[in-house]
Amino acid sequence: MAQKFRIVIVGGGVAGLALATRLGNSVGRSGRAEITLVDKSFAHVWKPMLHCFAAGTAANENDRISFMSQASRHHFEFWPGEITALDRKAKTISLAPIKDPQTGELVVDARTLGYDAVVLSIGSRANDFGTPGVAEHCMFIDNLVDANGFNDRFRMELLRAFANHQELDIAIVGGGATGTQLAAELHKALDLASLYSFGEKPPKLRITLLEAGPRILPAFPESVSDAAVTQLEAIGVEVRAGAMVSGADENGFILKDGSRVPATLRVWAAGVKAPDVTKQFGGLKLSRSGQLEVRPTLQVMEDDNIFAMGDCAFIAEKPVAPTAQAARQQAHHLARALPAWMMSGQKLPAFTFHNKGAVVALGDYNGWGTFPGGTVFGGGWLHGLSARMVHLMLYRQHQFELYGPVRGTISCLVDWLDVFVRPSVRLD
């Protein structure tokens, strides 16, 4: 019996899980191919919601999608592990050993996994640009593991501030969507914490948002940046544009002008670069930020059997911004194109990005969106309800795509019930 064509997808983010699900439902279900998804976590979250997990305001466990459950329902396999290398000649990827996070005990040895085609969708991480002290003294929220780690630390420091009647200082570097939304979400977390304060007055949360450029949210029109600053300042966030960070230590950040920003918790959310592991992928050509250079077909320059999509890919002929929107479209493109290429060697079509605009939501406080032509909506009336609804609809679209119509509807109902029940629960 001939061996099935092996497609390995590395990375279970927006693009990776969407591709695994679609291919599983087509060539996996029919038995024409063996689809394997690899990720270092056991659950998927929608990356634009990572700041909610970091702040602890994500509604419930329904916002996490188990890779194992998704695999069993959609005809693909899931392997836990973190990629460490790619051998183009042997057509294998290497996975790091898995250790118990509590004891450090080895659970699973390092492994190799063979492929006939591999799709790299390992996302991106913040870029510290080699700034002294950042790697040692700052936290990142590039993935669910990071977000959960930050939330653990945030809860402990919040508890300490409650007990000692102290202020909690948090400084966030990076005025893009991640840093800006995190600043608002942390204030929302404090509002929720006040419901369970046992009569104690909640501690003062002092957040400073540092942006090296002239304004926050540079991907949006200037009017949105100005409105976001106004809203953030209204809830107590100090926004400092033109603040270039030159170093970090255990007490805060040092700015280029020599001044200091004290902070108990220090978050780095500036810049975008591919994970450093791309340097271990058999000498594949990389962009300046470490992304894998790909052709319009999303194949890397040197190998027809290696694909890259999402934040870790750089289309040399026509670059696309590293957004969830672009990643999702690339996953859909490959889901349509790979079966015919795999079975009959049909030529792969070029990927074309269709910009549908952008949206940013500052918790429950406000939100704005832009259409491709630059028209702005949201803000003002009802605190930007229209933009926040669009942000929610994009998330629901993602859930429906992965769950299907029945489970997607149930998921929405569970979330809505949680919204109605949760505010009525008080422990004071």
Question: Which labels suit this protein?
Answer:
428 residues, alpha/beta, FAD/NAD(P)-binding domain, 3 domains, 5-stranded parallel beta sheet, 4-stranded parallel beta sheet, 10 helices
How would you portray this structure in words?
The structure is a single chain. The chain has 428 residues and is α/β, with parallel strands linked by helices. 33% of the residues lie in helices and 23% in strands. It contains ten helices and 24 strands. The strands form eight sheets. The chain has a five-stranded parallel sheet. A four-stranded parallel sheet has the order 14-13-12-18. One of its GO terms (molecular function) is NAD(P)H dehydrogenase (quinone) activity. Belongs to the NADH dehydrogenase family. Residues 5-331 form the FAD/NAD(P)-binding domain. Its cofactor is FAD.
In brief:
The chain is built from ten helices and 24 strands. It has helices spanning 14-30, 50-55, 67-73, 134-137, 144-164, 177-193, 222-234, 324-344, 385-403, 405-421, and strands spanning 5-10, 33-39, 43-44, 65-66, 77-80, 83-87, 92-95, 98-99, 106-108, 111-114, 117-120, 168-173, 205-211, 237-241, 245-249, 252-255, 260-262, 265-268, 292-294, 306-308, 313-315, 358-362, 366-370, 376-378.
How many beta-strand segments? 24
Into which percentage range does the β-strand content fall?
15-25%
What is the CATH superfamily label of the largest domain?
FAD/NAD(P)-binding domain
CATH topology of the largest domain: FAD/NAD(P)-binding domain
Structurally, the number of domains stands at: 3
How many distinct helices?
Answer: 10
As a whole number of angstroms, the C-alpha radius of gyration is 22 Å
* Span of the ends, CA to CA: 67 Å
CATH architecture of the largest domain: 3-Layer(bba) Sandwich
Let me know the largest β-sheet. Answer: 5 strands, parallel
Helical/strand content category: alpha/beta
InterPro entries: FAD/NAD-bd_sf, FAD/NAD-binding_dom, NADH-Q_oxidoreductase
GO molecular function: NAD(P)H dehydrogenase (quinone) activity
Family: Belongs to the NADH dehydrogenase family.
Domain FAD/NAD(P)-binding: 5-331
